[in-house]
Amino acid sequence: MTDRNLIAILRGLTPDEALPVGEALLDAGITRIEVPLNSPRPLESIRILVDHLGRHALIGAGTVLAPDEVREVADAGGRLIVSPNFDADVVAETKRLGLLSFPGVLTPSECFSALKARADGLKIFPAFQMGIDGLIAVRAVLPKGAQLYMVGGVGPEAFADWLAAGANGFGLGSSLYKPGLSAAEVGVRARRMVAAWDEATKGIAV
User: Fold this and answer.
1) Sheet of 6-9, strand order
2) Are 99 and 60 in contact (CB under 8 A)?
3) Cis ω on the peptide bond leading into residue 143 (within 30° of 0)?
């Protein structure tokens, strides 16, 4: 299955929804899934997703704010740690446990500090605040290999513009999933996101 640089952010997901929603995402072609820790019983949802889909998808947690939360996610089988902020202790614990670290950053100072701490990628949040012009400016001074994922106010209609400005991928929240949507509805939205990604990345390396 193609591994696209799209991370599904399932804020508000319940354990009962975890498997059907996860399967809908995987069927649509999204193979990276995070369950924010301010969701209902998030570790239980992560375990369910890991147990059933972990061979085919990268499963982890979002809104991870402390090192002890990193350990809890690792114990649940999660391999991806995403935060809304950069906390050096969270990144250090993530890397100590061999997990992937995507801290939230916005300013150039935060970007460089996170990379120095060995973050695997940067979650630019909120992306709408940086904007396309801001991304072009920041990308010009960051290492070429830095992985930048745009999160917050990013929709499929603008994927091509963000990618042209230097983005590598996207985190998709309420435009993809929100409480109350059925797995089938999430699947429809996911297929639209995947189609937009495939069109935007045609012929380019990200």
Assistant:
1) 100-102, 80-82, 58-62, 32-36, 6-9, 169-172, 148-151, 122-124, 104-105
2) yes
3) no
Q: Residue 136 above 90 pLDDT?
A: yes
| CA atoms within 13 Å, Cβ hemisphere of 159 | 23
69 catalytic residue (yes or no): no
Q: Provide the 10 A C-beta neighbour count for residue 143.
A: 8
Alpha-helix residue ranges (DSSP H) falling in 29-180:
42-53, 67-75, 88-96, 108-116, 127-139, 159-165
Q: What's the chain's length in residues?
A: 206
What is the C-alpha end-to-end distance of the chain, expressed in Å? 17
Euclidean distance between CA atoms 169 and 166, whole angstroms: 9
With 0-12 / 13-18 / 19 or more C-beta atoms within 10 angstroms meaning exposed / middle / buried, residue 150 is buried
What digits encode the pLDDT tens for the residues 42-99?
A: 999 999 999 999 999 999 999 999 999 999 999 999 999 999 999 999 999 999 999 9
Cα 137 vs. chain centroid, distance in angstroms?
23
Q: Helix, strand, coil proportions of the chain in percent (round to 5)? A: 45, 15, 40
Residue 144 annotated as catalytic:
no
Is the model's pTM score more than 0.85? yes
Catalytic residue among 17, 23, 34, 110: 34
Rounded Cα distance, 177 and 187, in Å: 9
Alpha carbon distance 75, 77 (integer Å) = 5
